[in-house]
Amino acid sequence: MRALRSPVGRTAATALAAAVAFAACGGSGSGAGDGGPAASPTPIPTPGFERSLGFVVSSFGLLFPEVEGESCPAGLAKGPVEYAAAGLPVPPDDCTAPLSAPSPGSPAMLAPGTLDGFDLDVGEQAGCEHPGFTGPDGADGIDDQLWRVLGCIRGFQEGDIVSGVVDAAVRDGSMTILVDVRDVDDPHDDDDVSVQVFASREAPPAGGDGSVLPWGTLAVDPDPRFHGSVARGRIVDGVLEAGPMDVRLRLNIQIVEGELSFRGARLRLAIADGGDARGGLHGYAPVDELYDVFGRQAGTIGGKEAIGYLCSGLRRLLDEQADGDRDPADGTCRSISSSWRLGAVPAFVAR
């Protein structure tokens, strides 16, 4: 690794040095010597902070592939609203027991397409084979079976209700995500860095327009379950790639509260000179966990009407398209590959 100091680290160092000097002078200039309040203790910087890059996620949601041809030739899935609009009886649908009644089915998004993701099952034990997407460089086998499940459901389309709700959650503290990159010698090219993703219970600082402001200080979640595993990574031409890693996030969005976890996840972030970053998080998510959030909870309290699905169809599609954590006893897969886009701004990650 090249022994260079990060420009982002220098900015962080300057900010911290100013804070230290301000505190050492007693804030506004008053101190014990002139009858004012005693000076605050001098802050102690985290060891190695000048060789780190911290981010708070400012935008998050499903990563949409570029699809060739018609995405859903059979049309979008039908929920209670669509059945009623067509003058059809709504099929029995118990979101707490989605497999208890026959399902009229739900269309999967099976069209080929291009996705800037990863072949997640490289080096993994055998999963359940499904056609993958193609990478921008022409690579085959890019995994995102979750979009096969959600791609023909109205509310999951780009710009529809789910995108807006999830995107807002990372800005208002309902789903704060932190990325901490350490051992950084050069933020543009470094062949060995360590990366960890954390949840946080704190809301990021926001501007008047609701956008996340840079250089806030946010503490990682005190529960170690929400501390992702440490992954090795590298930065090439300003693009960070890291993984595999395990990640667990808190989710508290309007009518649902739960967790999103990813096994064998990969992270890709293009870091701009000013410190902002944009990229994606890709990994295997447990089918039961996804159904609990998007089916059992959301579907029970108006979600299937607002989004446009039946819980029986959603659960069956998740089971059919699952491609990870294959159970050797019965051959079924328990998790499903997924791709999530994210944007981030620089932040101080307080451990």
Notes on the protein architecture:
The protein has 351 residues and is an alpha+beta fold. It has 2 domains: 1-51, no CATH class; 52-350, no CATH class. Helices cover 21% and strands 30% of the residues. It contains 7 helices and 12 strands. The protein is globular and about 70 Å long. The two termini are 25 Å apart. The relative contact order is 0.20.
In short:
This protein has 351 residues and is an alpha+beta fold. It contains seven helices and twelve strands.
Q: Strand sequence of the main sheet, in spatial order?
A: 1-4-5-7-8-9-10-12
What's the shape?
globular
Extract low-pLDDT stretches.
1-33
Query: Describe the biggest sheet?
Result: 8 strands, antiparallel, barrel
Write the layout of secondary structure elements.
Blueprint: H1 7-24, E1 53-62, E2 66-67, H2 80-85, E3 113-114, H3 145-150, H4 161-172, E4 176-182, E5 190-200, E6 216-219, E7 231-236, E8 239-253, E9 256-271, E10 277-286, H5 287-300, H6 303-307, H7 311-321, E11 324-326, E12 333-350
Helix pairs in contact: 5-7
Observed structural traits:
single chain; alpha+beta; eight-stranded antiparallel β-barrel; 30% strand; disordered N terminus
